[in-house]
Design a protein that fits this description.
Elements lengths: L3 H25 L4 E6 L2 E7 L4 E4 L3 E6 L2 E7 L5 H4 L9 E4 L4 E6 L1
Antiparallel strand pairs: 1-2, 1-7, 3-4, 4-5, 6-7
Bound molecules: zinc ion.
The site of zinc ion (ZN) has 7 residues, from helix 2.
């Protein structure tokens, strides 16, 4: 025996599921990209969610579990190496001496 109330509860649960799925989807947004450029030229454009190490002539960029950082650099000030890990849209790590910019972009 299926009661009328059971159907209503099922419908409410179904609507709730669809809404929460839509919410999670919109919060995640489009997959973020990591853009690595030097002298205003884009050298690499890769996914933020693919773990990898990118070796540039003067810097080593590491993408690990959705965050990006510069693990090694031959610049004198080491500001880029000491910059906190970035993960959000618009955040940047800049190595001025090597003119390298690592940026997270949607
Ligand atoms: Zn640097």
């Amino acid at each position: 025996m299926i009661k009328k109330n059971d159907i209503i509860i099922c419908v409410i649960v179904a609507i709730f599921c669809i809404f929460s799925a839509a919410l999670i989807f919109s919060l995640r947004g489009t997959p973020a990209k990591v853009i690595i450029s030097q002298d205003n030229t884009i050298l690499h454009k890769v996914s933020l969610y693919e773990n990898r190490e990118i070796k540039l002539p003067h810097n080593t960029v590491v993408i690990e579990n959705g965050v990006v950082f510069i693990s090694e650099a031959d610049c004198k000030n080491q500001i880029c190496v000491n910059t906190p890990k970035i993960s959000k849209d618009g955040e940047q790590i800049i190595c001025l001496p090597n003119r390298v910019i690592v940026e997270v972009s949607e």
